[in-house]
Design goal:
The chain starts with about 30 loop residues before the first helix and ends with a helix. By secondary structure, it is α/β, with parallel strands linked by helices. The chain has 14 helices and 18 strands. The radius of gyration is 22 Å and the shape is globular. The chain has two domains: about 30-110 and about 375-475, Alpha-Beta Complex (Aspartate Aminotransferase, domain 1), CATH 3.90.1150; about 115-370, 3-Layer(aba) Sandwich (Aspartate Aminotransferase, domain 2), CATH 3.40.640.10.
Length: about 475
């Protein structure tokens, strides 16, 4: 599963579609006659009929959320979407309307919603044994751990399972401190690694940080090719890591943690050469290198199974979640046998980590990715989608940047290309309009002006065309 697909595949790109579409809800004739703009027709054909919904109404759900759920929980769209069913790359609302899911539950659904083989694995395991404890032997966790190790390079083969990405990163930071005997952590500005005690410290966006004590973490200058001070010059950015170690620590650090592509930060790719140079500097200071693969991992980038592979590095610890469970709460920390022994100095335990149902789902996910060649599809269709999105940049001044790999793409909107002024209001407008047209996308970035396009890896070229034509049409009417 590992290795570069780019070296093995010849991508055959067809010319961008210039279809003149009609919507499921008809458009005025004047709009349908607009020249040079791809209007939006029906979604690509799909042979699934959703079950008729008979649950509580959307207004009742909103009322219950307001009364019984935390006020910190927010929703997309001015008119919140109610989702009651999912099938592969599509979601359905309470009225049975189908939507193209280009967000994938925040880069989580990789095989597709309710994939029959993943569902079957979950159901069969649930029928046999829903939960016991890792204090007893069970084949599900052992088989999944072996399969997961087979996707990773070098000696990364010992897994600790968790329930989420935040838990995985918390545990990775703990292991690094225990193993090295050092306390200082270096992360990148604009990063997101979780919302618990330690991970909130490594997260470097004020919008995700509460005013609580967060010590022992240093945030290095972000090697952002679009908004960064040094463009794509990775070597210039990495000097800041060296200066942090020399002037902000005792000269020794516990770890450097980084996403290979920043997800919540706005699908930001790291400047070429940066990660390998940073790893070298950190290791000289006694630190471990942690690859946060929670969003970019599990075949999502297409060219490689793990995002860090595109940078030519091998981390000491890898953290995994989201896509590995296809929606089931499952995370993992994978490291070497030597580093893993650091947790044996005291007892470490997690009641639900390694749950047989979750690990059975994880194993099914790996098998489906291989069987259906989803990594290859992420590369081919993702490259095609990025090419079509890049054409919008040539057409509309509103599009400041198009970036990412495979099925992890970002489109940044700006009101002024020279000043790179974030177009936050325009981003919200386009999201709402595309939802009306039947396309669901996410948003991110510190300024909330980046579309996060992270669909299931089974996305087709027809889906890609529908998404881009919907975006094209929406831009044309602004």
């Amino acid at each position: 599963m590992t290795g570069s697909l780019a070296a093995r595949l010849v991508l055959r790109r067809s010319p961008p579609s210039r279809l003149h579409f009609r919507r499921e809800v008809s458009l005025p004739a004047a709009e349908r006659r607009r020249e040079g703009v791809a209007l939006v027709k029906e979604l690509p054909a799909f042979g699934h009929t959703p079950t008729k919904y008979s649950g509580i109404s959307r207004d009742e759900i909103l009322a219950k959320r307001r009364e019984y759920l935390s006020p910190s929980i927010y929703h997309f769209y001015k008119n919140p979407l109610q989702v009651v069913e999912g099938k592969i790359q599509y979601l359905y609302d309470e009225k049975g309307r189908r939507y193209l899911d280009a967000f994938g539950g925040i880069a989580t659904v990789c095989c597709g919603h309710c994939h029959p083989e993943v569902v079957a694995a979950i159901v069969e395991q649930t029928k046999r044994l829903q939960h016991s404890t890792v204090l007893y032997l069970n084949p599900a966790i052992a088989e999944f751990a072996q399969a997961l190790a087979s996707t990773l390079p070098a000696n990364l083969k010992v897994a600790f399972f968790t329930n989420s990405g935040t838990e995985a990163n918390e545990l990775a930071l703990l292991i690094a401190k225990l193993y090295t005997g050092n306390q200082d952590i270096i992360s990148l500005r604009n990063s997101y690694h979780g919302n618990a005690g330690g991970t909130m410290g490594t997260t470097a966006q004020s919008i995700w940080k509460f005013n609580v004590v967060q010590s022992g973490v240093h945030h290095a200058v972000n090697p952002d090719p679009y908004r960064g001070l040094f463009g794509s010059d990775g070597e210039k950015y990495v000097r800041d890591v060296e200066e942090i170690i020399n002037f902000g620590t005792s000269g020794n650090v516990a770890a450097f943690i980084s996403e290979s592509i920043q997800g919540i930060g706005g699908i930001v790719e790291l400047a070429p050469g940066y990660l390998s140079a940073a790893y070298s500097i950190v290791r000289k200071a006694g630190g471990l290198c942690i690859a946060d693969e929670i969003q970019a991992g599990v075949a999502r980038t297409g060219s490689h199974f793990w995002g860090f592979e595109a940078h030519g590095v091998v981390p000491d610890i890898v953290t995994i979640a989201k896509g590995i469970g296809n929606g089931i709460p499952l995370g993992a920390v994978v490291t070497t046998p030597e580093i893993a022994r650091a947790l044996t100095r005291r007892n470490y335990f997690n009641t639900f980590a390694g749950n047989p149902v979750c690990t059975a789902a994880g194993l099914a996910v790996l098998r489906v990715i291989e069987k259906e060649k989803l990594q290859e599809n992420a590369f081919v269709v993702g490259s095609y989608l990025k090419e079509r999105l890049s054409a919008l940049k040539d057409k509309y001044e509103l599009v400041g940047d198009v970036r990412g790999r495979g099925m992890m793409l970002g489109v940044e909107l700006v009101t002024d290309r020279q000043l790179k002024t974030p177009a936050k209001d325009e981003t919200l407008h386009v999201m709402d309009r595309m939802r009306e047209l039947g396309v669901l996308i996410g948003k991110g970035g510190y300024y909330g002006n980046v579309f996060r396009i992270t669909p299931p890896l089974c996305f087709t070229k027809e889906d890609a065309d529908f998404l881009v034509d919907a975006m094209d049409y929406t831009f044309s009417r602004m």
